[in-house]
Amino acid sequence: MTFPKPSRTRKQERAIARRREAEVKTTVRAQVSQRDAARTLSGCRYPHATCDGGLEWAHVWDTRARTRNQPPGVRHRTDNTLMLCRVAHHAFVDANLVDIVAVDPALGTDSALLFVDRVGGYVIGLT
After folding, report:
1. pLDDT tier, 99 (very low <50, low <70, confident <90, very high otherwise)
2. Which of 44, 63, 86, 96 has its CB 3.0 to 4.6 Å from that of 125, i.e. a possible disulfide?
3. Do residues 23 and 59 lie in contact, with contact meaning Cβ atoms separated by under 8 Å?
4. What pLDDT does 84 receive?
5. pTM for the whole thing?
């Protein structure tokens, strides 16, 4: 019994999938950058928060591990990502020191956001 050869190799299939995901990521990152260009964390009272001005793209609720093996359009969305300052706020979110709460849960990060300290429970700031 013989099996037909696939039309593409596994390496080619992976490269195609990476290119498709890169297209979605580029589009979503541009939309989020444009949306968050004027957004600042007003009234930030977090100790040691020194924003350096540089922004990084951050996934907020559905992290990369939770969306693994899902289509790029599901993994990368504007309602789940935002731009955070590199030094302070992104590090705080990654270390689980800060919770980000959407004012309108249906819109996610497309709405106003509250940054809440996990330890003290006080509001750090509002975007």
Report:
1. confident
2. 44
3. no
4. 80
5. 0.74
